[in-house]
């Protein structure tokens, strides 16, 4: 994933958080179809957020946390000589390390 996509998803996430509270509608008492307009904003925003999150899960899930396919695995966690225990090896009950 390119750096531009990483920044784009970050900006989009921040915008979704900032505009989730309709601060620009404070004091507005307009009613549409029997409900205040701020409530309609929340309903619409929840739908928009759900769609964006679905797209995010399809395109960019794991962004910034998954290793690239070509990267070698981190040997320090599973290699015994590096102080780690192989993931498949069970811990001894009396082991104090």
Task: Give an overview of the whole structure.
The protein has 97 residues and is mainly α. The chain has a domain at 3-60. The protein is 40% helix and 4% strand. It has two helices and two strands, in the order H-E-E-H. The protein has helices spanning 3-18, 37-59; strands at residues 31-32, 35-36. The chain has a two-stranded antiparallel sheet with strand order 1-2. Strand 1 and strand 2 form a beta hairpin. The longest helix is centred in the middle third of the chain and has 23 residues, at 37-59. It is elongated, with a radius of gyration of 24 Å. The two termini are 39 Å apart. The model has no long low-confidence stretch (mean pLDDT 79).
Helix content: 40-55%
| Helix-strand pattern | HEEH
Average pLDDT number: 79
Tell me the number of strands.
2
Global structural class: mainly alpha
Which strand order spans the largest sheet, edge to edge or round the barrel?
A: 1-2
- pLDDT below 50 for ≥5 consecutive residues: which ranges? none
Describe the global form.
elongated
Radius of gyration: 24 Å
Please state the oligomeric state of the protein chains shown: single chain
Q: Profile the largest sheet.
A: 2 strands, antiparallel
SS element count, helices: 2
Portion in strands: under 5%
Protein name: DUF3311 domain-containing protein
Keywords: Membrane, Transmembrane, Transmembrane helix
Transmembrane segments: 7-26, 38-56
InterPro entries: DUF3311
């Amino acid at each position: 994933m390119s750096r531009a996509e990483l920044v784009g998803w970050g900006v989009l996430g921040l915008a979704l958080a900032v505009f989730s509270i309709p601060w620009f509608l404070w004091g507005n008492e307009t009613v549409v179809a029997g409900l205040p307009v701020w409530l309609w904003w929340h309903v619409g925003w929840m739908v928009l957020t759900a769609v964006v999150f679905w797209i995010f899960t399809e395109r960019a899930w794991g962004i910034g946390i998954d290793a690239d396919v070509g990267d070698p695995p981190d040997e320090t966690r599973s290699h015994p000589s590096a102080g780690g225990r192989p993931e498949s090896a069970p811990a001894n009950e009396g082991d104090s390390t």
